[in-house]
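re the bet — no i am not wrong, look at it urself. input seq straight from the record:
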Amino acid sequence: MIREIDRLSELLGQLLQLAAGPRLELRQVNVHKVLTEVLLLEREAAPSGVKIFTQFDPSLPVVSGDEAQLAQVFRNLIKNGLQALVGCRGGMLTISTRMATDFHLVRLKEQAGRKAARRGRFLSIDFADNGPGIAPERLPQLFTPFFTSKSRGTGLGLAVSQRIVAQHGGTIRVESTPGQGALFHVYLPVAVV
């Protein structure tokens, strides 16, 4: 009964967050610190036989973000990856960070009365699992509220995560091939200092 109350409480919190959107308290954030703290808890919940690997680039700059909200995004993606690995022999979840040299978001900036394009620099935080992957017909629905393929899922984790990342000026992308796992990329803009 207590587990069900906790689950309903979490569901209500996610619904409220999705409806109103979180208020961000922006600070300079080291994503490695946030990931390490989230992983301390999530490693304990990892299914038996599943290994979690990290490949962090220590030279990455900070992002301007809300540490608690980013922790929620990372927690959602780690939980999803671990859940995909339940029952997988040799299951691995790899979390890596890098500068996103292949991704640029063009922002328009007013200069002397006319708009000029300015490229932003982005970090990529990647969550890769070697689970069963995601069926191609489900990919377009992944970030839709209440869409889930899990028997006990709420369908809110990815929708909330996408909204939080968008509020930070970033985006989430997913790649998957059935039978070969899934890869989620979280792109966050580098803080302008």
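see?? The chain has a mean pLDDT of 81. told u. also The radius of gyration is 17 Å. so pay up
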